[in-house]
Amino acid sequence: MELVVNNLSCARGGVPVLERVGFRLTAGQALMLRGPNGIGKTTLLRTLAGLQPALEGQISSPPESIAYAAHADGLKATLSVAENLLFWARIFDTNDITPALEGFDLVDLAGRQAQNLSAGQKRRLGLARLLVTGRPIWMLDEPTVSLDTASVALFGRAVAAHLKTGGAAVIATHIDLGFSAQSLDLTPFRAAPQKLNDFDEAFL
Amino acid sequence: MIALLKRDLSLSIRAGGGFGLGLAFFLIVTILVPFGVGPQSDTLRLIAPGILWVGALLACLLSLDRIFALDYEDGSLDLLATAPIPLEAVVAMKALAHWVTTGLPLTLAAPVLAVLLNLQGAGFGWLVLSLLLGTPALSMIGAFGAALTVGLKRGGLLLSLLVLPLYVPTLIFGAESVRRGAQGMATTTPLLLLAGLTLASVALLPFAAAAAIRVNLR
User: Fold this and answer.
1) Could you count the other beta carbons within 10 Å of the beta carbon of residue B201?
2) Mind listing the UniProt keywords for this protein, alphabetically (chain A) (predicted)?
3) Chain B within 8 Å of A51 (Cβ-Cβ)?
4) Which of A202, A201, A203, A170 is nearest to A55 (CA)?
5) Interchain contact, A53 vs B218, CB within 8 Å
6) Phi, psi of A20 (to 5 degrees)
7) CB contact under 8 A, A70 and B75
8) Cβ–Cβ contact A52 with B under 8 A
9) Is B13 on the interface with A (CB under 8 A)?
10) CB–CB of B60/B21 below 8 Å?
């Protein structure tokens, strides 16, 4: 299990934001993406997750190995916590949601509708979804937003446990999560300001 | 895939799910038209097939923008796009869920409401049959339109404009088969064309819609 990124350039809204990004991640490792707002952390993660094509460069990872967690948690307000998790478990062909509920301290909330959760609880539910995907590489975009200190520690332990079982994680974050990880500052990879001369892009 | 269908169906019957929206609209149209046209039962009988089909079509149109917009807004669509089930299957399941919550109730309610429009007795069976054959095409074409406009804020207007011309063949052959059936003429040709439209859209449009979503998610 290995994620290798080579000479990757990606664009947002037709404008290149990052170029020549390269790193290598093996089982048990985590990579922290650092850099100021707007540098392209989200764009890089979306490109890695396969949601948008790379301008150039290669991403090599085992097929069906990436679980992506965005700013939005993808929760349905009128479904309960357990129903939300169970839905994602079935989509990813796993069945057991108990470890996810326990791992993010959601057992007591299992029957509550997602619309009645606090922002932090919603975030925890969104992160618990990663555990039911059963996928080895996690792509996390600002996972600790609206989490309190205890929940950040909870999340840190979940990621550490995931790494210990042979997983990997790419995390865009501004804070320290309390486990050892390599760090990648994206500032040097900022794309030179230029306009794409691809005329069609405006229409695609 | 079944999980997605189940989720969409249970979402639609919970608070704010919009299950009865299309049905209520259909009810309103078929009740109001006789008041507007007046009590001449001959006129009503003449226009009944067309009004019923136009009503069903507009009722379908009403809930189209919910197919993908809600999932797009809360981020589920991104997550579904990275999930192991293919996006084509997601589109097909969502169209199916839309049909079960809109097309199917319309089909079942249509014979009851047709009484208000004084549809001839012979036409009732054909009305149900033609709606059963035609409404899946409405849902599938609608899902394609919704996929095209998924990233747009308030894309409902554009969606209606895109989808309406695509609905026209279904409307023509649907209403025509009811009209012929009601007058005791042969209905084979319009019904076959209607079935052909449905089968073609179910076979082709999931791929087109999935491609549109991929572009819109970039």
Assistant:
1) 23
2) ATP-binding, Cytochrome c-type biogenesis, Membrane, Nucleotide-binding, Translocase, Transport
3) yes
4) A201
5) yes
6) 55, 40
7) yes
8) yes
9) no
10) no
Residues of A in Cβ contact (< 8 Å) with B83: 91-92
In B, which residues are within 8 Å of A71 by CB distance? Answer: 75
Residue A114 φ then ψ, to 5°: -60, -25
Query: Residue A109 is inside which H or E element, if any?
Result: none
Q: Would you kindly state where each structural domain of chain A is located, as residue ranges?
A: 2-203
Residue B173 three-state SS: helix
Residue A203 confidence (pLDDT): 57
Taking CA–CA distances from B7, the nearest residue in chain A reads A87
Amino acid type, B75: G
Local mean pLDDT, 10-residue blocks, chain B (218 residues):
86 79 91 90 90 93 88 89 90 93 92 90 92 94 93 85 93 94 91 95 95 89
Q: Strand, helix or coil at A16?
A: strand
Chain B interface includes A200 (CB < 8 A): no
Residue B218: its pLDDT value, please?
82
Question: Does any CB of chain B come closer than 8 Å to the CB of residue A202?
Answer: no
CA distance A149 to A146: 10
Per-residue pLDDT reduced to its tens digit, A152-191: 888 888 899 998 998 899 998 888 777 778 888 888 888 8
Amino acid at A164: K
Query: Max Cα separation, chain B?
Result: 58
For residue B85, the chain A residues in CB contact (below 8 A) are 91
pLDDT at A3 over 60: yes
Q: Does B108 touch chain A (CB under 8 A)?
A: no
What is the CATH code for A2-203? 3.40.50.300
